[in-house]
Each structure stands twice: as structure tokens, then as C-alpha cells.
From TrEMBL:
Keyword field contains Aminoacyl-tRNA synthetase: no
Signal peptide positions (record): 1-25
Superkingdom, natural source: Eukaryota
PROSITE patterns assigned to the protein according to its UniProt record, in alphabetical order: LRR
A Pfam family assignment: LRR_8
Organism: Acanthosepion pharaonis (Pharaoh cuttlefish)
Listed transmembrane segments: 549-575, 587-606
Cited InterPro entries: Leu-rich_rpt (IPR001611), Leu-rich_rpt_typical-subtyp (IPR003591), LRR_dom_sf (IPR032675)
Key words, A-Z: Leucine-rich repeat, Membrane, Repeat, Signal, Transmembrane, Transmembrane helix
SUPFAM superfamilies in alphabetical order: L domain-like
Name assigned to this protein: IGFALS
């Protein structure tokens, strides 16, 4: 008779096998339901989430509804997103939301809620997490319905401008015990002033968004109580200046958005404007705000700043000593759409920290190679929207950049040696969308194994043999469309099978020596296909080995053999790291000797420690796993 301990262990083992060997389809399965009266809504499972999450989307957006539709025939064991955006609903009654399994309700857009019943969302209080409403006014009486949703995490209150509210009154949120709320959005109300105690009831929020209002002064007193605030959005307001210390006691604020304001004049942002954020602010966005110069005196104090976006301003000048000299952690910089003169002083202090640089729409006619050569960590460059027409030879020689974005320009010719590899093990990603390229011969004329991906969307590329030579090169991922071959090939995808078959009949690829990296890539592609065939066996044997290992430690069958098996599993888990290296041959003898030593140890354990027949099965499993695993050197 089996002991309860053994039955418990066996049930856990079966559960582990079922959960690890079950295969879920990656295809997005969409199930349809009949969910509302008169068919005014569409119910689908699997639109925003995979089908196995059990979330149904009830989509009633833009149906000209004047009231919340009655839901019928929907399963009562699912979670629901109820989207009622862009309708004409003005009243919410107590019985409009009777189902308790709503996780999101959206009543924003063109709706204009004059009255929301106090108990309108009581039935949904258990699971409701996101609520969006277009309300006519914010005050204590209009927001009494928040009593019924104490677990809500995201609240968005919108206004469509029909009735402006200039002041956010005192204690508009207190008393509701909204301790679970993490994100609050108040947009489009035309607020000019916020009372100091307006946010007392939501002091635990992490994200506060106040866009599309008329704020001209940062509500410092109201923000002081939000000690956990990490993201603040003050975009699309009416700020003209930032005075000293406007963000007092916000010691966790890591992202600040001041885009689309009216900062004008050299002293628009005070030198001490960000002093309280010097050790926490990581992302600062000031785009489309009419800045006339880089606020270097205020930026120099931000020691933790890693992302800075100053695009689409009127910046023409900067401090002669270098505007970013104190930002030694700055990794991403966007100065697009300004009339700056690129020079070494502009980027002084960023040579060893900058990873991504965007200089779009700056009327550049060539790549500033002399300036970018000193950036040892720069891997991403976006030059879209400039005035380049031709990429000469050695276009990127001496640069460390691996990802070039060269969209929306006038490039019609690229020299054969324009692109070179920045490092022996690196490949380039080049985006040439929306240019005037007619041929891809520059790819085949470049040294093999230079490109990883080339994007040629919205270019007049010809469907010719030069294209065929690149398409058949499996080491390059080519994306885009081509034209040619009469009416059959107009804006056809480069990877289209019919195009490839047609070009194969008329084009011949000369026999040439295959580059070493291409030969290795082909081996690894074949290896991956083999891996897909035996992955099921590998998983089953590994699962069985783990079960045996747990059995030995729990029941103390053989402490010596369990130690050997632990060593084997640790070695197996370390092999994938070695599979990424280019040359695997020098390490083959090492791993082979380790495998043989484990075999020997298992044999000694079998012969000297115990006579249990299960150990013979264990040695067979280890041997089968070594032979079946595509990660092992024996199967490489």
C-alpha cells in the first residue's frame, strides 16, 4: 500500500509534468459572443489579451448610444472590459453596471456625464481596476460615486471643453480611502489653480497626469503630499517660466513631462528649478515649448538624468562651457528640430555615456563623423528628415554605431563600401524608409556579414536580379516593397514567394566562396531546426531528471548520486552560454571530459553504494538526455 507521502509526491510530479509540457498556441484566438440588446455591441475574447486569460472585450464605442446598453447572454465566469467611449451618454444609474466582473470601464471621449449615481459602480467594486469618465464638473458631490470603488488603481477624468473648471477644489478626493490608486489623470478641464489639499485622498498615487489644462504655475503645495509620485505630466499647459524649487519634497520623481508649453526667453527656467530632483529625475521631456536656448544651468544639477528630449524648440545657442557637462549619466539625447550648430562643445562630457542620439530635421547635408567618432558607447543614431542625398564610401568608418535610422530623406545612391562593421562580432541595422532608392546593389557590394537588417519601405526599388541576390542571402533580413515585372509586381513585398520564384527563373547567382560567418549561420539555422525536433525529448528527459533529483534528496535514496546529478544539471544549464560563442571547438573536449567523468561517477555509485535498480534507469536517462539535447557538444 502506498504511503500518503508517496501519493503526495506523485501528484506533485504529475502536476509539474503537465504544467511544463503543455503547449499553448501563440495564435491569437478570438471568440465571439452575443452580449447586448439589439446587437449594438460586439463581444470578443482575445482582442487585447490572449484567449487563455479569460478577458472579454465588450466594444460599444462610437455607437451613438444615449444610455448604457443592457448586457445579455454573457458568461458569468469571465472578466470584462466595457468600452463605451465616444457616445452621447449623459446619465449613469445605479443599475447600469450590475455585473461584478468588470475590470475596466471606459466612458470617455464624446460622452458628457452630467450625473453619476452614488452607487453606480458598487456592484463592480471587487474587480474594477481602470475607470475613465468624461464628467461635467469635479467637486465633492459629483465624485461621490468613488465611495463604491475603493480598489480602483487607475482613474481618468476627462472634459471635452463644454464647461471649463478653473479651480480644482479642496478635498475633492478625501474620505474615499482610495489607497490602491496608482494613476490619476485629469485632462481638458482648463484648470488654472489646484487647492493645496486637493489630492489628500489619493496620496499613494505613483503617476499624475494633468495635460490640456491652463496651469501657469506648478501646484507645489498640492504636490507636496504625493511622496510616492514617480511620474508627473504637465504637458499642454500654459507655463511660461519655472521659478525656484517648484518640485519640493518629490524625492521619488523619475519622469517629468513639460512638453507643449510656452517657455520663452533665456531665463524661462530658473537655475534651481530642478534642484529638488537632482538625485531622482531620470527622464526629462521639454518638446515644442519655444525654448530659445538649452537650460544648461538647471540641467547641470541633475546627476541621475539619463533621458533628455529637447526636440522641436527654437534652440539656436548654448553655453560655451558645454550644456551637458554635469550630466555624466545621460544615455539618450534628442535635440531634433532645432537650429543648433553641432560642435564638440555641444556634446562635451558625453563621450563615454551617450548610447542613443536623435538629430532629426536639422538640415544636415552629411554625417558629422568627426564629431561622433569620439562617442565610444553610441550605438543608435537617428538622422531622419535631413538633407542627405548620397552616402559615400566609408560612411560609418570609425564609428561604433550599429543602428542607423535614415528615413524621410532624398537618398538615391549608396556607395558599395559605405557601411563597414563597427566590430568583428557586430552587424548593422539600417532603416532607409521613405527615400529614393531604386537598387539594393550596395548590400551585395558590401563586405559579407555586415548587415543584420535593412528596411527599404516606401522606396522605388526595382524587382531585379540585384534584389534577388540579397533576398537569397539568409544572413540579411530585408524588408520593404519593390516594383517591376509588368503589372504583376507593383508594391509587392520583397519577401513574397511568387516574386522569389519568378526571379529565380531569370537570375543566376555566381558560385563564390561562402563567407565564414554565412557558413556558420547556415549551420546554426540547421542546428535550430534539429533542436526543434528533439526539444520535446529534451524537455521530458530533463523533467524526469529533476524529479529523480528531488526524490533522492527527499527520501535520501543516495546522497552521493544526488550530488553527482546536481553537478550534471548545473553543467547542462551552463551550456547555452557557450552555444552563443562563435567558435565552439576549443571547449568540446572540456565538456566531453566532464560528461565522461559524470558517467564514471554514476557507474561507481551503482557498483559501490547501492543495489537499487532505479539507479540503472537514472544512468540511462542521463545518457539519453546527453544524446537528445541539442545543447550538448555531442549533438553539435
Amino acid at each position: 500500500m502506498e504511503s500518503p507521502r508517496f501519493s503526495h509526491f506523485l501528484s506533485l510530479t504529475l502536476l509539474y509534468i503537465l504544467t511544463n509540457c503543455a503547449v499553448f498556441s501563440e495564435r491569437l484566438t478570438i471568440l465571439k459572443y452575443k452580449c447586448a440588446e439589439r446587437g449594438v455591441c460586439e463581444c470578443s475574447e482575445g482582442i487585447y489579451d490572449p484567449f487563455y486569460t479569460g478577458i472579454i472585450t465588450i466594444d460599444c464605442r462610437g455607437r451613438n448610444l444615449t444610455k448604457v446598453p443592457v448586457l445579455i447572454g454573457i458568461p458569468n465566469f469571465k472578466y470584462y472590459r466595457f468600452l463605451l467611449r465616444d457616445n452621447r451618454i449623459t446619465f449613469i444609474n445605479n443599475r447600469d453596471f450590475r455585473y461584478s466582473l468588470f475590470i475596466e470601464i471606459d466612458l470617455g471621449g464624446s460622452n458628457f456625464l452630467i450625473q453619476v449615481a452614488d452607487k453606480a459602480f458598487v456592484a463592480t467594486s471587487r474587480f474594477l481596476r481602470q475607470l475613465t469618465l468624461n464628467v461635467s464638473q469635479m467637486n465633492v458631490y459629483k465624485l461621490r460615486f468613488l465611495h463604491g470603488v475603493p480598489k480602483i488603481q487607475e482613474l481618468t477624468l476627462e472634459s471635452n471643453g463644454k464647461r471649463e473648471q478653473t479651480t480644482l477644489p479642496s478635498r475633492v478626493f478625501p474620505g474615499y480611502k482610495l489607497k490602491a490608486m496608482r494613476k490619476l489623470t485629469l485632462t481638458g478641464f482648463g484648470l488654472t489653480k489646484i487647492a493645496w489639499d486637493a489630492f489628500l485622498g489619493v496620496s499613494n498615487i505613483h503617476i499624475l497626469r494633468l495635460p490640456y489644462n491652463n496651469l501657469s504655475v506648478v501646484p507645489t503645495a498640492a504636490l507636496k503630499g504625493l511622496r510616492k509620485l514617480s511620474e508627473l505630466d504637465l504637458s499642454h499647459n500654459n507655463f511660461r517660466t519655472l521659478v525656484k524649487y517648484p518640485f519640493e519634497q518629490l524625492y521619488k520623481l523619475s519622469k517629468l513631462d513639460l512638453s507643449h508649453n510656452l517657455f520663452d526667453g533665456p531665463e524661462a527656467i530658473a537655475p534651481d528649478a530642478f534642484s529638488d530632483l537632482k538625485n531622482c529625475l531620470k527622464t526629462l521631456i521639454i518638446t515644442n515649448s519655444s525654448l530659445s536656448e538649452i537650460p544648461s544651468s538647471s540641467l547641470r544639477n541633475l546627476k541621475a538624468l539619463s533621458h533628455l528630449n529637447l526636440s522641436d524648440n527654437r534652440i539656436q545657442d548654448f553655453n560655451n562651457s558645454g550644456p551637458f557637462r554635469g550630466n555624466y549619466k545621460l544615455r539618450e539625447l534628442d535635440i531634433s528640430g532645432n537650429s543648433l550648430d553641432l560642435s564638440e562643445k555641444l556634446f562635451s562630457g558625453l563621450n563615454n555615456s551617450l548610447h542613443r542620439l536623435s538629430i532629426r530635421r536639422m538640415k544636415l547635408k552629411s554625417l558629422p563623423k568627426d564629431l561622433l567618432t569620439n562617442f565610444t558607447q553610441l550605438h543608435y543614431l537617428d538622422m531622419s528628415g535631413n538633407m542627405l542625398t548620397h552616402l559615400p564610401a566609408d560612411f560609418n568608418r570609425g564609428l561604433h554605431i550599429r543602428h542607423f535610422i535614415l528615413r524621410d530623406m532624398y537618398i538615391n545612391e549608396i556607395s558599395g563600401g559605405a557601411f563597414v562593421k563597427p566590430a568583428p562580432a557586430a552587424k548593422l541595422l539600417v532603416d532607409l524608409s521613405s527615400n529614393r532608392m531604386t537598387s539594393v546593389s550596395f548590400v551585395s557590394d558590401t563586405r559579407p556579414c555586415t548587415f543584420l537588417e535593412v528596411v527599404l519601405s516606401n522606396n522605388p526599388v526595382q524587382c531585379d536580379c540585384a534584389l534577388y541576390r540579397v533576398v537569397t542571402d539568409d544572413t540579411i533580413h530585408l524588408r520593404g516593397q519593390c516594383n517591376g515585372g509588368g503589372k504583376h509586381f507593383r508594391h509587392v513585398s520583397i519577401t513574397d514567394h511568387a516574386l522569389t520564384d519568378t526571379l529565380r527563373r531569370v537570375c543566376t547567382i555566381p558560385d563564390a566562396n561562402v563567407a565564414p560567418c554565412r557558413r556558420l549561420d547556415a549551420q546554426w539555422r540547421a542546428h535550430k531546426q534539429f533542436s526543434g525536433v528533439v526539444s520535446v525529448w529534451e524537455k521530458l528527459t530533463l523533467t524526469t531528471l529533476l524529479i529523480c533529483w528531488a526524490w533522492m534528496f527527499i527520501f535520501a535514496e543516495s546522497i552521493y548520486l544526488s550530488i553527482y546529478l546536481s553537478i550534471y544539471l548545473s553543467i547542462y544549464l551552463s551550456i547555452p552560454v557557450c552555444s552563443l560563442s562563435i567558435n565552439l571547438m576549443p571547449i568540446f573536449p572540456i565538456y566531453l571530459s566532464i560528461y565522461l567523468s559524470i558517467y564514471l561517477s554514476i557507474y561507481l555509485s551503482i557498483s559501490g553504494v547501492t543495489e537499487n535498480h532505479s539507479i540503472f534507469s537514472l544512468s540511462f536517462l542521463v545518457g539519453f538526455h546527453i544524446l537528445a539535447s541539442p545543447r550538448s557538444p555531442l549533438s553539435a
